[in-house]
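Long-time lurker, first post. I've been practising inverse folding by hand and with some scripts of my own, and I keep getting stuck on stretches where the structure tokens seem ambiguous. Below is the full token string for one chain I'm working on. Before anyone asks, I'm not after the true native sequence, just a reasonable design that respects the backbone. If someone could post their per-position residues I'd love to compare against what I wrote down in my notebook.
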């Protein structure tokens, strides 16, 4: 007897994203294990690669906004860290490292101009790098950048229950380097990046999750952007692309190798402006 596995039907929802062109991108300091200032970065290639991400999001029908890049902020391309946005509520980051601290001001100004009422985090926390809305909860990373105290603050400001997850491997310093939200009820993650207790939590909440191999995780394959159907991810993560396909998703491989030198991938460059319910005011 042959059995045919049922492949779920995945539907895309039109999203709104905030990106920042990597005009001042460079690796001038090292605040995560991927960054080696001695290794040259090809700035023109970084810009071209980023443009391929921008185009891919636009071609999928999403609305893409940009925030103006500022000089001397080489990591500002990683907009996901600037704020956590859930249901139109905004918690602007408080960066752990002084090198990135001024990015908060730029984000606060952008959100104000765009009509939001942003709160600025009192505790170190790095936006959607560590706070990922999924279904009616927020998955939150606790690790080198964001503390459990910040999780409590996020729950209060963003108004949704927060599930804290402990990151244990310095290479996976933000939640979005080790876990991606694919749909309202599906995620993918690398078990090796989380504490034993957090692995138990993830297994209980998402028993059908896609699990990444060490190799795909090391290609930053989990730093992926999903609209519910299409999943933009680093092209080197071949195993994940195959698993996504088998689960009904459409992988969209992207080459962002220059940005990877700073420890970033598609998701780090993409802040989702998660909407207020029923188009309500932010
Ligand atoms: N160089 C940046 C940093 O270490 C990379 C940030 C990547 N962003 C992300 N959402 N994981 O802060």
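-- Answer (accepted) --
I ran through it position by position. Result:
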């Amino acid at each position: 007897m042959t059995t045919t596995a049922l492949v779920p039907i995945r539907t895309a929802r039109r999203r709104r994203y905030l990106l920042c062109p990597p005009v001042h991108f460079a690796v001038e300091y090292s605040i995560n294990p991927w960054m080696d200032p001695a290794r040259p970065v090809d700035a023109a290639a970084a810009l071209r690669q980023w443009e391929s991400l921008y185009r891919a999001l636009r071609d999928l029908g999403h609305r893409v906004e940009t925030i103006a890049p500022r000089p001397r902020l080489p990591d500002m391309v990683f907009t996901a860290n600037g704020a956590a946005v859930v249901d139109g509520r905004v918690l602007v980051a408080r960066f752990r490292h002084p090198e990135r601290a001024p990015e908060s001001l730029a984000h606060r100004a952008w959100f104000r101009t765009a009509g939001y009422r942003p709160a600025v985090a009192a505790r170190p926390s790095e936006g959607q790098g560590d706070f990922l809305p999924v279904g009616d909860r927020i998955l939150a990373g606790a690790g080198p950048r964001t503390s459990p105290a910040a999780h409590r603050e996020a729950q209060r400001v963003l108004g949704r229950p927060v599930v804290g997850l402990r990151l244990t491997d310095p290479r996976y310093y933000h939640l979005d380097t080790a876990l991606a939200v694919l749909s309202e009820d599906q995620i993918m993650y690398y078990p090796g990046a989380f504490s034993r207790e957090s692995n138990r939590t993830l297994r209980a909440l998402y028993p059908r999750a896609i699990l990444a191999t060490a190799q795909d995780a090391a290609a930053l394959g989990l730093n992926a952007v999903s609209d519910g159907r299409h999943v933009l991810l680093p092209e080197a993560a071949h195993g994940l692309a195959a698993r996504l396909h088998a689960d009904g998703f459409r992988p969209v491989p992207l080459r962002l190798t220059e940005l990877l030198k700073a420890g970033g991938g598609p998701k780090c460059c993409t802040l989702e402006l998660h909407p207020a319910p029923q188009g309500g005011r932010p």
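A couple of notes from the structure itself: The domain at 16-272 is CATH 3.75.10.10 (L-arginine/glycine Amidinotransferase; Chain A). The chain has a mean pLDDT of 96. Happy to go over any region you disagree with.
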